[in-house]
Specification:
By secondary structure, this protein is α/β, with parallel strands linked by helices. It has a single domain (14-380), classed as Alpha-Beta Complex (2-enoyl-CoA Hydratase, Chain A, domain 1). Helix content is 46%, strand content 11%. The chain has helices at 12-17, 42-57, 79-87, 91-109, 126-131, 160-163, 171-178, 184-190, 202-210, 217-227, 242-249, 254-267, 271-282, 285-298, 303-319, 325-335, 353-358, and strands at residues 3-4, 18-23, 26-31, 63-68, 72-74, 115-119, 122-124, 136-139, 144-146, 182-183, 195-196. The strands form 2 sheets. The chain has a 7-stranded mixed β-sheet with strand order 1-2-3-4-6-8-11, sandwiched between helices. The protein has a 4-stranded mixed β-sheet with strand order 5-7-9-10. α2 links the parallel β3 (26-31) and β4. The chain starts with a strand and ends in a 29-residue tail after the last helix. It binds p-coumaroyl-CoA. The site of p-coumaroyl-CoA has 20 residues, from α3, α4 and β7. GO terms for molecular function: 3-hydroxyisobutyryl-CoA hydrolase activity.
Length: 387
């Protein structure tokens, strides 16, 4: 029988935002802001961090399950508050949010006990950060995955330059630049999910996980295997187009990627190529350029290095000195909802390499410092790389 517990926390609402279920050696954390699609607020991230760190020390805990209440696992970081902060000129509050979130991503990526994320709904931005770095990711027929940041004037953060760059071939560049939505079958095919379980079987799976008394990933994997199915990958899936994706998204620059897609479209008109071109043309040109460079650098870096670099980048975005596209993207998509952002600079060709370069440099501010990741000791082999 599950019991609801409340570990030590200062603010009462934190307990309501992340519910905890205890079952023998398993702990289930439930993101509980269903009306906002479980968008992660600062309090939620703080609470998750507190719970993850406490459970790592607790020998009675062997397995963590993470899931969302309602139709979403998690639709990303909570963008509603940040817009107010930036408008007031308080970009450091945004930076503080990201520092906390990225450290949580790092703790998850290097966690010493297995984490099973049940992705039975929307998984976007920060929701991917809370799950993809963990050991097991269970997709269902309700999963909708996307990294939609370039449409918002941001870039795929939360360590996405690490995991996107490790997807097969150039699929990560495609997912990260276009913000394309993937279903559960596509998530499994590309490796973002480790298992696919039909939602009708989730309660049985969870019951089985509640009885687990081991942290051995092989044990957990075989339990999830019992409920897993091989889903149908639709013929129109982007994952069936890896050859075109490779031909186009392997190009050196965003301009070359677009030209390659346009050439493909001329040779063989196709709805998927048109949609892909349209997504790129609607996104912030600055976001596209810094995202491509970030994913390319990520190929050669560990998850910690990726997060430190992304933190520099996100601080530049929050500071708004180099570009105000993030504020404009939030206005157009979340506030006025006219879906018509006016990006500045408005075109790819106006953004030089040296402008891109600045996003990767330290912030010129005496009070600012690079992200300090916590030292993580005694990691078992499986705690390091999950993808
Ligand atoms: C496609 C979605 C997921 C579902 O669409 P829908 O089914 O038509 O549902 P709604 O859009 O009506 O969403 C239901 C409610 O959830 C809210 N919501 C839905 N995602 C959100 C959300 N990320 N935030 C804060 N409310 C939300 C949304 O505003 C709405 O609230 P309300 O109008 O009061 O009913 C749609 O909500 C959507 O595009 N959400 C944004 C997804 C997204 O871009 N996520 C990644 C964002 S970037 C990121 O993670 C970092 C952000 C950030 C964080 C902190 C910072 O300091 C700086 C930056």
């Amino acid at each position: 029988m599950a019991s609801l517990t409340s570990a030590s926390a200062k603010v009462k609402t934190q307990h309501e935002l992340v519910l905890v279920e205890e079952n023998l050696s398993a702990r289930t954390l439930i993101l509980n802001r269903p009306k906002q699609l479980n968008a992660l607020s600062y309090q939620m991230i703080s609470r998750l961090m507190e719970l993850f760190l406490a459970y790592e020390e607790d020998p009675n805990v062997k397995l963590l399950v993470l899931k969302g209440n309602g139709r979403a696992f998690c639709a990303g970081g909570d963008v509603s508050a940040v817009v107010l902060d930036i408008r007031k000129g308080n970009w450091r509050l945004g930076a503080q949010f990201f520092a906390k979130e990225f450290i949580l991503n790092y703790v998850i990526a290097t966690y010493t006990k297995p984490q099973v994320s049940i992705l039975n709904g929307i998984v976007m931005g920060g929701g991917a950060g809370a799950s993809v770095h963990g050991r097991f990711r269970v997709a269902t027929e309700n999963s909708v995955f996307a990294m939609p940041e370039t449409a918002l004037g941001l870039f795929p953060d939360i360590g996405a330059s690490y995991f996107l760059s490790r997807l097969p071939r150039f699929f990560g560049e495609y997912v990260g630049l276009t913000g394309a939505r993937l279903d559960g079958a596509e998530m499994l095919a590309c490796g973002l999910a480790t298992h696919f379980v039909p939602s009708a079987k989730l309660s049985l799976l969870e019951e089985a996980l509640h009885k687990v008394d081991s942290s051995d990933p092989a044990n957990i994997s075989s339990i999830i295997d019992e409920y897993s199915e091989q889903p149908y990958l639709k013929e129109q899936s982007a994952y069936q187009r890896l050859d075109i994706i490779d031909r186009c998204f392997s190009r050196r620059t965003v301009e070359e990627i677009l030209s390659a897609l346009e050439r493909e479209a001329m040779n063989k008109p196709d709805a998927w190529i048109s949609t892909t071109i349209q997504s790129l043309k609607k996104a912030s040109p600055t976001s596209l350029k810094i995202s491509l460079r970030s994913i390319r650098e990520g190929r050669l870096q560990g998850v910690g290095q990726c997060l430190v670099r992304e933190y520099r980048m996100v601080c530049h975005v929050m500071q708004g000195k180099l570009s105000k596209d993030f504020l404009e993207g939030c206005r157009a998509i979340l506030i006025d909802k006219d879906k018509n952002p006016k990006w500045d600079p408005p075109k790819l060709e106006f953004i030089s390499n040296s402008m891109v370069e600045q996003y990767f440099s330290k912030i010129d501010d005496e009070e600012w410092e690079d992200l300090q990741l916590p030292a993580r000791f005694h990691l078992p082999g499986y705690a390091a790389a999950k993808l």
